[in-house]
Specification:
Blueprint (H helix, E strand, L loop, with lengths): L1 E4 L21 H15 L4 H8 L3 H13 L3 E3 L14 E3 L5 E7 L3 E7 L5 E8 L5 H17 L3 H4 L2 E8 L7 H4 L3 H4 L7 H8 L3 E6 H12 L8 E6 L3 E7 L2 E2 L13 E3 L5 E3 L1 H4 L1 H10 L18 H23 L6 E6 L3 H16 L10 E4 L6 H15 L4
Parallel strand pairs: 1-8, 4-7, 7-8, 9-14, 14-15
Antiparallel strand pairs: 2-3, 4-5, 5-6, 9-10, 10-11, 12-13
């Protein structure tokens, strides 16, 4: 049993700068480096890995044989060149390792089981009015036990860990959640991470939910993308993350907690971003019109909600995001801003278009206008980010 905090390993677009070492004591690190490179490039031959890492051909051969023996790598079809022996590309074995990810949110909790490639194998989800520690723990234990019982004993042995992504200081949001403070106070002493680590034999990791979503974008998103970007995840509350030089910047605790950022919305009026670009404002607007608002938490395939209320929310959210982006770019020259969230793809596209339009209305003198792009992981970024915590810790190179 193990309880750990994790910021994840070195992201994939940074590994070209990471060199291996031929010293025997660094074998585990070298193995993670090889796995990271193979993940990035999908398939690599031994000679290519030796060139990228600076490791000797003999060292790479030993590592590759061991990783293949451990079931983490699979051989591809030989590629014949003009001279010499054919090269054999190696790729990740999807069944080589399995990872659980538990997302605890303000309106829902979900558990996923993913394979080594990040594909979701099993998924369980529940919604509620507000989160409660004991109910959350009960859901997690029931879902974990059900998923594990559906696996063969061999597959259970390949479970590498459980990551938990959740908002920190949940008790501070009782008023915004419109919940009596005494209902949220149990979170002050609750320790879901330790509770689950005492029950199961795999390590358990914990991370802020928005930061975890940002981590999912790094681990499972496209490679070769921007090395510095600002990330927003639009959920019940909006949050985010900061990526610098291809790695999440966590600061002294939770850098990138973008929700409380003050933004101007009119003639001297200032509000925190969380009050403009969070989905709780859309929910309350819909409910205020006598419509059923809870449906937006059930699925992101399609939202059957009043168009007028949605457009109003998109307008104000775009204004808030545009101001937050420009303010952030005055501190760090981000080349890109990624926006993702719990919303249908077409709603995300509309939001990004409106954000781009709003940025053009602002004074960017002395600033470079960043590219605005959609996050690639989608609504499940937080749960996949949770599952990426044990993956990064065990199988990717460390920062």
């Amino acid at each position: 049993m193990s309880v750990e905090a994790s910021q994840g390993g070195t992201p994939l677009d940074r590994v070209s700068e990471v060199r291996g070492t031929n010293q025997s004591g660094m074998r585990a690190r070298n193995e993670r480096l090889v796995l990271t490179l193979v993940r990035r490039h999908e398939a690599l031959a031994k000679a290519e890995i030796a060139r990228m890492t600076g490791l000797s051909a003999q060292t790479v051969s030993v590592i590759m044989r061991q990783l293949e023996k451990d079931g983490l790598l699979l051989r591809g079809e030989p590629v014949r060149g003009k001279v010499g022996q054919p090269s054999i590309p190696m790729r990740l074995n999807p069944e080589g390792a399995l990872f659980f990810g538990l997302k605890i949110g303000r309106r829902s909790t979900e558990l996923v089981l993913i394979d080594f490639l990040g594909r979701v194998l099993m998924h369980e989800r529940q919604t509620y009015e507000y989160p409660q520690p004991q109910a959350t723990l009960n859901f997690a234990k029931k879902a974990l036990d059900q998923m594990m019982s559906a696996l063969t004993s061999e597959a259970q042995d390949r479970i590498a860990g459980l990551g938990i992504a959740m908002p920190f200081y949940l008790w501070d949001w009782a008023q915004t959640l419109q919940v009596p403070q005494e209902e949220m106070d149990p979170w002050r002493t609750a320790d879901i991470q330790s509770e689950l680590a005492d029950i199961y034999d795999f390590p358990v990791f914990l991370q802020n939910d928005a930061t975890a979503a940002c981590g999912a974008e790094l681990v499972f998103g496209p490679t070769g993308g921007p090395r510095d970007f600002l990330y927003f995840y639009v959920g019940y509350f909006i949050g985010g993350g900061i990526v610098l030089n291809g790695a999440i910047y966590s600061g002294r605790g939770n850098a990138g907690a973008l929700g409380p950022m003050p933004v101007a919305i009119g003639a001297g009026d200032v509000k925190p971003l969380i009050d403009l670009a969070s989905l709780y404002t859309l929910e309350r607007t819909i409910a205020g019109e006598g419509q059923t608002a809870g449906l937006i938490w059930e699925s992101t395939d399609h939202w059957d909600i009043p168009k007028e209320e949605l457009n109003s929310w998109l307008h104000h959210a775009a204004i808030g995001l545009a101001h937050a982006i420009v303010s952030s770019c005055s501190l760090i020259d981000f080349e890109c801003v990624k926006i993702d969230g719990w919303m249908p793809a077409d709603v995300k596209e509309q939001l990004i278009t409106k954000v781009e339009s709003q940025i053009l209305r602002l004074n960017l003198t002395g600033l470079e206008r960043p590219a605005i792009a959609a996050g690639t992981v989608g609504p499940n970024a937080r749960s996949l980010g949770a599952a990426s915590l044990p993956l990064s810790e065990r199988y990717l190179v460390e920062a």
